[in-house]
Write a structure and sequence with these properties.
single chain; three-stranded antiparallel sheet
Length: 138
């Protein structure tokens, strides 16, 4: 990753552990790449899954472009998919509620426009009659 890290003249102030690189992504999610001392193993750690994906995707592209031969990508733990499934379900229910509220809003705005037309015609008449606002359902 020397191509994306500018060490300039003071490399010692940036490097506290030569076997680890920490990234802070634009959405302020951190991701750390740990490199094993004795083997060719890499470990990616992050507080959020999307932080790992961004750095891991770049890493895989770099490895594939260099054609290092056989390599294995593995995961020791199951990804926390239940959290994402919960978020997807919540989004689905929110979208359903949003669609219901759009229908209610359309009905209420139609009622409003009808009442508005009645009021306009009433104020234009010389001898206005009583206004029946029985359409209002609050």
């Amino acid at each position: 990753y020397k191509d994306i890290i500018n060490f300039s003249d003071n490399a010692d102030q940036y490097v506290t552990n030569p076997n680890a690189i920490a990234f802070i992504l634009p959405n302020e999610v951190d991701c750390t790449l740990l490199i094993a001392k004795n083997s060719s193993k890499y470990r990616f750690q992050s507080s959020q899954l999307e932080g790992i994906w961004f750095v891991l995707n770049d890493f895989v592209e770099r490895v594939q472009s260099k054609k290092y031969g056989d390599y294995v990508l593995s995961n020791q733990e199951a990804p926390p998919l239940q959290d994402y499934f919960t978020l997807i379900e919540n989004r689905f229910y929110l979208r359903e509620e949003f669609e219901k509220l759009k229908v209610v809003l359309e009905q209420k705005s139609s009622e409003f426009r009808t009442i508005q037309k009645r009021l306009l015609t009433r104020f234009k008449e010389r001898n206005p009659s009583s206004l029946n606002l029985s359409l209002i359902h609050i």
